[in-house]
């Protein structure tokens, strides 16, 4: 639905800009596939621990 509104509201006349618009998602997907994910293992994390951590970040 959002994609439809983009194509109805924006007109790209420049071929280089159109090519960049088309290849941007492809390039982002390639980078996402190659991006190393951080994996952290926790022993016994409880809901209260997460609430304490998030509360500390908001204060």
* Rg of Cα set: 21 Å
Q: Can you write the helix and strand succession as a string?
A: HHH
What is the helical fraction, as a range of percent? 55-70%
What's the main sheet like? none
Instruction: Report the principal-axis shape.
Output: elongated
Average pLDDT figure: 77
Span from first to last CA? Answer: 38 Å
> What's the helix count?
3
- Kindly state the number of beta strands: 0
Protein model, in words:
By secondary structure, this protein is mostly helical. The protein has helices at 2-9, 15-34, 47-58. It is elongated, with a radius of gyration of 21 Å. The two termini are 38 Å apart. The mean pLDDT is 77.
Secondary structure layout:
Elements: H1 2-9, H2 15-34, H3 47-58
Task: Describe the structure using short key phrases.
0% strand, mainly alpha, 59 residues
Summarize the structure.
This protein is mainly α and 59 residues long. It is 68% helix and 0% strand.
């Amino acid at each position: 639905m959002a994609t439809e509104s983009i194509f109805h509201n924006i007109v790209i006349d420049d071929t280089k800009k159109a090519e960049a618009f088309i290849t941007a998602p492809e390039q982002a997907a390639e980078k996402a596939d190659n991006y190393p994910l951080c994996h952290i293992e926790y022993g016994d994390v409880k809901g209260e621990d997460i609430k304490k951590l998030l509360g500390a970040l908001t204060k």
